[in-house]
Amino acid sequence: MITSEEIKRRLWDGANELRGSMDASRYKDYMLGLMFYKFLSDKTLETFKMTAGVKTVSESELVTEFVKAKEEYGEDLEKMIQDVLGYYVSPEYLYQTWLIDINMGNFEVQKVSDSLNAFERTIMSSGDVRDFKGLFSSSTLDLTDTALGSNLHDRSENIKALILLFADLNMVALQKGDILGDAYEYLIGQFAMESGKKAGEFYTPHQVSEVMAQIVAKSSDIKSIYDPTVGSGSLLLTVKKHLTKDKQRDLAYYGQEKNTATYNLTRMNLLLHGVRPEKMTIKNGDTLSNDWPEDPENPNEGVQFDAVVMNPPYSAKNWNKAGLKVSDPRFEVAGALPPDSKGDFAFLLHGLYHLGTNGTMAIVLPHGVLFRGSSEGEIRKRLLEKNYIDTIIGLPSNLFTNTGIPVVIIILKKNRNVADPVLLIDASNSFIKVGKQNVLQEKDIAKIVDVYLGREEMKGYSHLATREEIMKNDYNMNIPRYVEGVDSEIPQDVDAHLFGGIPKSNINDLKVLQSLVPELLNQSMEEIRPGYVNLLKPVTELTIEIMKDEHIIAMSKEIEAKTTEYIQKYLDSLKQVTMETDISALTEEMLCEIKQILLNYQYIDVYGGYQIIAEIWKNALHHDTELIANEGFYNAGRKREPNMVTKGSGKNKREEQEGWVGSLIPNEFIAKMLFSRELENLENKRIKIQEIETELSELVEAAKVEDSDENNALIDAIKKNDDGEPLDAFDNKALKEELKKAKKGSAEQLLLKKVEYFINNKASLTKELKTEEKELDDAVQDRILTLTDDEIDSLMYQKWFGNTINQMVGLIQNSLKKELNSLRILEERYSDTLLDIDSQIDKMMKEFESLKDKLVVE
């Protein structure tokens, strides 16, 4: 069973290898288009097999039966499949037929072009399947493009290699577990990162989509959703992921996209994620120039939706090519037309116009919309006066591949009470750096969503701005006006610098220490004058005492017990995962529960604990639960697969098997737990080899010292460069020659013999090590097949939760150590007073005068 992670890795590696110098933003259309055609062909064959009652097992037999049936029943067969799917792929145009042609050496690119064109003619004219129309238009898949190859032969070879990339994937089976959709979405994201600025046309970074989707999904009853700048459809699909299965099934998707190739990509993406054709309405058009969708019965009202999400082009210039006026019903609410040089508010107002009364809208825009003046200032004022702006979320800069500017998510609602304040969240400092991009972690997303849902005020992070505050700021919504940043720098105290001591006010600011270990903290210092104290012991010693404090130990044990109970509960759930298990719901449940456990403890980083569990899912559980669902827990634990490695380069590049690896349990875990003695023996040999190498290196260095005993005996046995200068290793051949010449029993012979002994011993140990490593590898690979249930239980506990208890307990220590570090900084800062510095200067001056008197001028 191939997992989604393995498919993602294989397809992306293949894409990188095959596209050569072709731009990623262009190559994606070919790769994703052909991948989708494979899905359509597989779907056609599956439908033929089911409706015709064919019993064959192999795909080649099924294709043969399909060809025979077509010859016998002709259009009747095609209509039967068309009635089920709304389309069909004729036998001669199947993806599988291309593969047969490739294997027989009869492949031609024209056959692919003919197949794609023929598919268009097989689509039913009913509205339910209109989303298949034009998917493979020449503007999207131009097989004559010289970027695919400068001549027909090169283009043929490149297309053939791309076709072979999907040859062994059963797209229908993969779609059922949403593996295919995940892989497709992953490839879109990877192409976006490779495409740089061009990616803005079709992709919203996953972490930004998550914030928007979770807020929308958790704050509205969604039956319909609309994205006016739909791109690849990732925002729509992310919202879908956060809805229950029942709501997903009934959800109606609407979207519009200006770029034709991206519009086709959207439809493919939704179809591969299991969205039924009749549930999607995607249009190829300019959202701003012509309002869509429209309600024919109410032309001035527009169709309204339960949720609107969008990531429009930022500050689009010349957006008003259609010459729209304020009288356009979309802009009437604002009383002003957005400037032609910046289309940000035009997109916002379009989305707001289509937002239902009880719905939620989330839009990503550049930071400037919060404070720019002129007509934009008027529009912002009108929106705030009408109380449509619900929340403003400031995000870090450099999140997007197509721009480094900071952006904001604006949440809008039409059903807010007049007195409701606007929530402002400053998440601009919540990120980690991954390569060149800034990235929101799972804990950052969870914190934003929690603060939004709870309408919380957090110092330095969020604020509820009243109408009076907003008016006082002249409707300028720049976040720093409302959310004051927390200065982590401890202010300097002049009196403490002059006379020493740590200000008592700084000690009082150590809230965690004051709350958890107040007595211990107070006993470790003495007041030297009113308002100032000195430490009675070093901070390192105080740290040890605090970590051993009864209260801290009791708190640690309590968290340890609760984490152990939590792990055991979900370990049982994870072992019982099946194809029917809602993995997304299980993930959400685990993340929410760890958060609830930690919320009971003051001064613990709740979101740090959330991230620990999120990392377990990201690094292991998403992959492992797929295997368990398909194979069963213990069967998956005893399953192994070929360890494929890439060898050679260029035309000789190939994949070869090197042994086996556990499908679920990594080989190194098995070795560590079940072959500890063998591992210890191997490590001892490595240490001995390292010791011998050190001895030899020391002898080489000693031999380079002129007139030393080692130099006299060993210098001629050392390897030399072309200039005759000694290198850093002995030459075995030269060593033997020197031994022949050395006088028996001489100091020279003893040193040479010593080197020979070390070299021979190292060679012997290295040979033994290599043999024993191979034996251990073989033993581990065989042991996978005979693991007992108890062994699998222990190994999987270590893999998933081996360090989790220590990490959760460490959250207590982290907050304590942070403040203890502040205490150390304070002690060091005020350790030298002005009097101390004056004394040091006086001492140095006296020493200088003394030296000056000793100077003699001749």
From TrEMBL:
GO terms for molecular function: DNA binding; N-methyltransferase activity; site-specific DNA-methyltransferase (adenine-specific) activity. Keywords: Coiled coil, Methyltransferase, Restriction system, S-adenosyl-L-methionine, Transferase. It holds the Pfam family N6_Mtase. The keyword tRNA-binding does not apply. One of its GO terms (biological process) is DNA restriction-modification system. It comes from the Bacteria. Residues 675-702 form a coiled coil. The keyword Ribosomal protein does not apply. It catalyses: a 2'-deoxyadenosine in DNA + S-adenosyl-L-methionine = an N(6)-methyl-2'-deoxyadenosine in DNA + S-adenosyl-L-homocysteine + H(+). Residues 7-163 form the N6 adenine-specific DNA methyltransferase N-terminal domain. Its EC number is 2.1.1.72. Residues 176-486 form the DNA methylase adenine-specific domain. InterPro entries: D12N6_MeTrfase_N (IPR022749), DNA_Adenine_Mtase (IPR051537), DNA_methylase_A-5 (IPR003356), DNA_methylase_N6_adenine_CS (IPR002052), Restrct_endonuc_T1M (IPR004546), SAM-dependent_MTases_sf (IPR029063), T1MK-like_N_sf (IPR038333). Belongs to the N(4)/N(6)-methyltransferase family. This is site-specific DNA-methyltransferase (adenine-specific). It comes from Anaeromicropila populeti.
